Amino acid sequence: MDAVRARFARNEGLPFADILTEASIRDVLNEHGVQFRDRVFSPVTTIWGFLSQVLSEDHSCRDAVSRIIAHRAANGITVCSPNTASYCSARSRIRTKVLSTLATRTAQELQTSIADQWKWNGRSVFIVDGSSVSMPDTPENQAVYPQPPNQKPGLGFPLKPGDVVLADALFDDYFLTWELCTRGIDIVACAQYERVRSQVTQSRPDDDIIIWERPNKPHGMTGEHYRSYPKTLTMRQVTVDARDKNNRAKQFKVVTTMLDPSIDGKQIGDLYERRWDGEVDIRSIKSTMQMDILRCKTPEMVHKEIWAHLLAYNLLRTVMAVAANENDTEPRKVSFKGAKQALTAFAPKIEAARPEERATLVDAMLTTIAYHRVGDRPGRWEPRARKRRPKPAARLTKPRHIAKLPDNRSKWF
Fold first, then answer.
1. Residues 311-365 pLDDT 10s
2. Which of the listed residues 32, 36, 329, 342 has the most CB atoms within 10 Å of its CB?
3. For residues 330 and 69, what is the distance between their CA atoms, to the nearest angstrom?
4. What's the N-to-C CA distance of the chain in angstroms?
5. What pTM did the predictor assign?
6. Pairwise CA distance, residues 99 & 294, whole Å
7. What single DSSP character describes residue 12?
């Protein structure tokens, strides 16, 4: 954290140039064999512009180009044309693998530098959940993401032996649990159903030790693959009491592969209640960073847009970690939206300041970020309904280019 903090005061570029340095970007470009000419929208400038674009409330290419022009003018460099064509062309030339490598590497650097007291019993916990986004319904996007969407193999989770996976009831799966166990990874998940033919071998005040029998062979799994799984698994079942006068939940059961008696049932229950952090993180990416509706019109650019959002998210989390470290708090207690607002407000001032003035501005930015906290509101529940009535309008049930044809216009007037 101290090393990351030291780079803030040397910031001389666009947003996040303090963390994502030009040298680190060039290393990744060289790693992937990317060669480029010296031009206004070099890969380094384009990536910085892409990051400022996904963090902007506007999200438009015109806004990103305006930021680059302002940066060049402030540094006495010849300004480029406000036309967005060159920037869009340069953005399309960036390899998706370059953005994914930068996003993954930034997350790994942050993970290895965090304080031990921020971990759970000295272990890293990965909250797993799923979500979805929407994008323009161009023929290219429809071909890659058909309706309904087909689940396709994705990237593996960055897990290693000793880590803990924290997930909802959909991950309460015998075969998935065994796959994680073979890799030395524990799981904590909400019990989805009563296990048929399971036996309680030991009953304790705060949990039970159960023998989970292998369920029937899933459809699509070969017999040979099915027989490779053991006939039983030893699990731990904890009853979590979440009763509250304002809470819709009462009591539920959590299963885990962690059998260590030094970790009591209350610790397991408290850990599972942190699963909501995963929901909040997804909301931060989709709502606060506006990734719920993507703008790109081709699958290739959609992938780049997603990785640019994740890269910006990891960089902003790094800033939050530094702010929390310097103000003696935990990153989870710092507001993500407040951090984003503070950073976007301070970034132009830090960039325009003289080198000797940057340290004071960085201190003020970090203090502001750490000031905005997320309250601990257990049992909070809000109705899943909208109070504001939407304006009455017909739903678009056909692709836009078809609806615009003269014969169809009368349907949507």
1. 999 999 998 998 998 898 988 899 999 999 998 888 878 777 787 888 888 889 9
2. 342
3. 37
4. 57
5. 0.82
6. 17
7. -
Q: Tell me which residue of 214, 244, 240 sits closest to 226, measured CA to CA.
A: 214
Asked if residue 301 lies in contact with residue 46, where contact means CB atoms within 8 angstroms, the answer is: no
CA distance 162 to 185: 6
Helices (H) and strands (E) in the chain, counts: 15, 7
**In this structure, what DSSP letter does residue 403 have?**
H
What span, in angstroms and rounded, lies between the C-alpha atoms of 223 and 403? 50
Burial of 302 (0-12, 13-18, 19+ CB in 10 A): buried
Question: Which residue is associated with the tokens 């997930």?
Answer: 167
Indicate the pairing of strand 186-190 with strand 164-167.
parallel
Structure tokens at 36: 């480029």
DSSP letter for each residue of 356-375:
HHHHHHHHHHHHHHHHSB--
C-beta of residue 381 within 8 angstroms of C-beta of residue 247: yes
Q: How many CB atoms lie within 10 A of CB 210?
A: 20
